[in-house]
Batch of 3 targets.
Target 1
Amino acid sequence: MNPQYPEPAVTVCFGVTIDDKRLGAFNSCEGLGLEIVLEQREEGGQNGFIWQLPTRIKYTNIKLTRPLCQDTTEVMAWLASMTSGVKPSTGSITAMTAALKPVATWKLDGVIPVKWNGPGLNLDSPKVAMETLEIAHHGFKAERVA
């Protein structure tokens, strides 16, 4: 790889931590995003345009998927800790290169689990057992990786 151009992140490796507890690597991460909600206002006598006023930011839920592995026990321990009450956590998602070198990290505020789906275990259709974890959050900011 040319040293002038840094190695890009691969789309198959995302490290996830919640409250500094490592949940492992996931091979699919969907939903890192935000939307700024706009309120439209029409001004009397101004027929040429409509004011677009920003109001709030909406953050999409994040879906993390991977084959079932030993790190699944870490996810289950985190989910089991919610039985006495769900409280928001901090978390991070790190995109990595094929050599597991961090490329970009997103710090998440107010992380709560929304949904977990385990594998479908069926003798008639043998395939890789997958798990999906969906989380909600109240915002994120990119962190520069050295």
Note: The chain has a mean pLDDT of 87.
Target 2
Amino acid sequence: MYAVIRTGGKQYRVAPGDKLKIETTAHENGTVEFSDIVAISGEAGKFESELSGAKVLASVLGEGRGDKILVFKLKRKKQYKKMQGHRQNFVEVKINEIQFNGKSFKEEAK
């Protein structure tokens, strides 16, 4: 069981129990609800046709900033050099539940 969600301009394939780092989003009480669902698959190779009311529920594990990415610009023979660093903010979430058509899929106990 998995779903494809869209958040922060990117798409992620998620299943109950997965942990992932996404772009910073608003969250309240440590939970996030994703309602922009691209696809849901209950079995391998089969996708659900009706996605209205589908949502993915996740809990926030933490927030942080990613590794520094250096941006270096150079124009040869013009004495122009520019170095700039960037660290992207992220929220780490754990997918708890996928809901659609009155069904609910949670992480299987191990």
Note: The chain has one domain: 2-106.
Target 3
Amino acid sequence: MIDFFYGPGPNPLKIALFLAETGLPFKARPVDTYRGAQHDAAFRALNPNGKVPALVDTEGPEGRTAIVFDSTAILLYLAEKTRQFVGEAQDRPQLLSWLMFVATGLGPFSGQAVHFQNAAPKGLDYALNRYRREAERHYQVLNDHLEGRSFIVGDRYTIVDMSAWGWLDRAMRVMNTEDRPLERWPNLVRFMDMINARPAVQHAQAIMSGHAFKTTMDEEARQAMYPTSFSPASKGTVS
């Protein structure tokens, strides 16, 4: 059995999509990040970095329990466990390359763009511009790569597509607009339309909405997510 520890956000969403696509049996374990549940000792034992998602698989390699954290690591683990959505053997170098493009570029810069536009103190124009422009640059790189392609790697749907979809799904917040946020990147629009048409997407969204997470950014949430100082008792994170 798989225990899927998740909270609201694009990284858990990717894992929800994989679980929906494969039909793997799992239990959804909500972690309310705005209430600071990611800092609880029990969760830190699973992910010392205090971020969602995390996964516990009691039927891991050689019958041993496996604990995996970080969405990219979880996608790789589940894909290799099920032998699904990993592409062809010859696609492996490109699969790893584009998976890391999302993990180290598209995802982090998108997340920081959202933070500096919505949560950071006013007046940090350099940081806001830096992260917003980098998010847009990553959009352009992926848009150019998708010219004449249906999928990011090879000729079939893989975990790379799931990973990119998780962050592109948040384009409205990254671009700070509700009006066609990806219209400058037509290949990304086409890509998202294709993925969103998959039945598993609705299932994934249902998984993510299965718990009423706290959504109010009050002082408790700010201290949980963005503490003003670091201490062993207050280890904030952006999940």
Note: The radius of gyration is 18 Å.
